[in-house]
Design a protein that fits this description.
Layout: E1 2-5, H1 11-24, H2 36-47, E2 52-57, E3 60-69, E4 79-86, H3 95-110, E5 114-120, H4 124-132, E6 136-147, E7 150-160, H5 173-176, H6 182-185
Parallel strand pairs: 4-5
Antiparallel strand pairs: 1-2, 2-3, 3-4, 5-7, 6-7
């Protein structure tokens, strides 16, 4: 398995992983899968500030993880939301864990303090996975999303990335690519 930063050219593979999640599950609250062009735009926009990583096996993209702003107000700038998705054929092979652990290292290099994950309920496997890598439950938005004919809760979990009582503002992703610790963050 190889981890690297996503590129816009990964959009077709990323969409192929994400589309069934949108259409067949409540994991994503999107109603329709985004187009390849929209996925490319999302990758480009995310990489301006936050990491978007892909995992490859045999040269094929089998999973991805990314981070984004938690909220827009300045006081939230040290917090980020994270997501990970793995192709159905590559699940339970350590892909999600590898992606998340690398993502967290990149976020630490940037100076983030907290990572948050929202998990549509019910989803015991995802809840167990997040808890196994250190996330702690912090709350539930009840009946917050309506999809596939039913209301769904979203459970929120938090991972403390680092302790810092007086942090400097996080650095943008382009400012840390290639910096000390970068290569180590993406190694398995």
């Amino acid at each position: 398995m190889r981890l690297r930063l996503a590129r816009e050219a990964d959009a077709p593979a990323v969409r192929a992983i994400y589309a069934p999640i949108v259409t067949e599950t409540t994991t994503s609250f999107e109603a329709e899968p985004p187009s390849v062009e929209e996925v490319a735009r999302r990758i480009r926009t995310t990489l301006a500030t936050h990491p978007w990583l892909v995992a490859e096996i045999g040269g094929a993209v089998v999973g991805y993880a990314y981070a984004g702003p938690h909220r827009s107000r300045t006081a939230y700038q040290w917090s980020t939301e994270v997501s990970v998705y793995v192709h159905a054929d590559a699940r339970r092979r350590g892909v999600a864990r590898a992606l998340y652990l690398a993502l967290f290292e990149v976020l630490r290099l940037q100076g983030y303090v907290n990572a948050y994950a929202g998990i549509t309920q019910p989803n015991a496997p995802s809840m167990s996975f997040h808890e196994a890598i250190g996330f702690e439950p912090v709350g539930v938005y009840r009946r917050v999303g309506f999809k596939h004919g039913a209301w769904h809760d979203v459970a929120w979990s938090q991972l403390r990335l680092r302790e810092d009582d007086a942090p400097a503002p996080p650095r943008m992703l382009p400012d840390i690519v290639g910096s000390e610790g970068w290569d180590a963050a993406l190694k398995l």
